[in-house]
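Design job #97: recover the sequence.
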């Protein structure tokens, strides 16, 4: 009986193996390579620990350019080159300080200057502070209620929203535009609740902007823990105004020369047709830029490395792009699209990884129902790896300019499980230790698998 059972089991296994399609076997080999022999995690460790923060225009950004170029050259990609561009050069300077003034006591709170902000005066800024949740509430106070004060924008994420990025989009305007709206009414400074859905003491920086003709005022993010405390103090002491002191030392220097870094495997059938995969090489300066976007960078390089290692010869040219300046300008994405248009390049698709290196759940396809329907036919090939959410959505900030520059291109975004993403986004906690090796590797394999299928079957 045992011998018969063994025979039946062997026969069933053999039948299963023979039933597997060539595509499923190649995709299996991609995941095996990523999980058994992958380089993404060790490359990410080097990027984070040996180079570190990589804000546009900084020395570390240039080190990252030089290093990623060498990595791709050492892998033997068919072509590795740089695309020169000019980028903003903003520096944080000495660490910020802030405290709530309550009578004679000073209660320290943690802040971080927003990227692009001006500095306070050398002695810092002290003024009464008022709390608002949105621009409508701010405007309702009028100039008489705002002039000479620091405005505290304290609108939190709406945690009822399942998608963390939807919650982020619902709150981020106060960070990007708050200083302009407050200055129009005579405010002297702005403090913004950090863009995260957790309560901790890590301020989360991020980009902000000024507007021509509107006075520039200093702007900083405050940790959510400190924001809760400040809000409480404001509610408790309505009779006597709460004052805030903060000091920051940032400055904007002239634009600097930098580069996108590009590596290619040339297509064996239609080399003039291009599939792009990429992420952004720059990061904010508070941490190592591990999830934002070191993971996207190392996954994109890993896609091409695995194609070479597994001897998968693509029909079309596969191009990995390390975009520069996503965080405070998007000039890398704009330059890449500009060059693609000038050269009349034929792009089939572009895939971006910029939602963190967490477990992949699927891909989002931007504004192309026919491409989405085509890609959804491959669900059974990706389902064994839990990559099943093939849905409409954005492609990514850096590949976005390609939509108008290259007619017919399909933009795709890697969709990981991002519920933890805003815990560390733009904060000092975005470090290598907070990236899971297997999750990172599975993301790289998922992108490589989709690119293999697009290369073989197209996007329509």
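Job complete. Output follows.
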């Amino acid at each position: 009986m045992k011998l018969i059972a063994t025979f039946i089991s062997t026969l069933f296994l053999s039948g299963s193996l023979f039933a597997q399609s060539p595509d499923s076997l190649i995709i299996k080999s991609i995941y095996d390579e990523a999980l058994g022999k992958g380089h993404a995690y060790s490359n990410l460790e080097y990027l984070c620990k040996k180079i570190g923060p990589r804000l546009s225009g900084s020395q570390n950004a240039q080190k990252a350019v030089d290093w990623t170029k060498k990595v791709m050259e050492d892998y033997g990609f068919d072509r590795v080159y740089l695309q020169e561009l000019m980028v903003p050069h903003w520096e944080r300077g000495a660490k910020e300080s802030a405290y709530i003034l309550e009578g004679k006591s000073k209660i320290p709170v943690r802040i971080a200057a927003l990227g692009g902000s001006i500095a306070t005066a050398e002695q810092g800024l002290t003024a009464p502070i008022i709390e608002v949740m949105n621009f409508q509430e701010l405007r309702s106070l009028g100039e008489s209620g705002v002039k000479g004060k620091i405005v505290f924008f304290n609108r939190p994420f709406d945690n009822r929203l399942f998608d963390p990025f939807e919650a982020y989009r619902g709150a981020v305007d106060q960070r990007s535009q708050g200083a302009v709206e407050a200055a129009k009414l005579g405010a002297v400074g702005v403090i913004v609740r950090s863009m995260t859905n957790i309560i901790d003491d890590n301020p989360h920086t991020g980009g902000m902007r000024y507007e021509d003709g509107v006075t520039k005022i200093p702007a900083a993010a405050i940790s959510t823990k400190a924001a809760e405390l400040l809000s409480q103090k404001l509610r408790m002491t309505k009779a006597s105004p709460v004052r805030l002191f903060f000091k920051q030392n940032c400055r904007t220097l002239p634009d600097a020369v930098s580069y996108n870094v590009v590596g290619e495997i040339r297509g064996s059938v239609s080399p003039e047709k291009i599939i792009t995969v990429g992420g952004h090489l720059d990061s904010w300066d508070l941490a190592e830029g591990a999830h934002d976007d070191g993971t996207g960078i190392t996954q994109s390089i890993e896609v091409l490395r695995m194609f070479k290692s597994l001897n998968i010869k693509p029909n079309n040219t596969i191009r990995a792009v390390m975009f520069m300046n996503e965080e405070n300008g998007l000039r890398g994405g704009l330059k890449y699209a500009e060059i693609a248009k000038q050269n009349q390049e034929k792009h089939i698709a572009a895939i971006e990884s910029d939602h963190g290196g967490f477990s992949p759940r699927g891909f989002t396809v931007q504004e192309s129902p026919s491409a989405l329907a085509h890609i959804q036919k491959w669900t059974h090939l990706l389902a064994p790896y839990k990559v099943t959410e093939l849905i409409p959505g954005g492609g990514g900030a850096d590949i976005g300019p390609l939509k108008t520059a290259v007619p017919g291109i399909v933009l795709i975004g890697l969709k990981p499980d991002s519920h933890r993403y805003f815990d560390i986004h733009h904060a000092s906690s975005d470090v290598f230790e907070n990236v899971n090796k297997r999750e990172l590797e599975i993301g790289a394999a998922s992108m490589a698998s989709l690119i293999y299928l697009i290369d073989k079957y197209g996007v329509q």
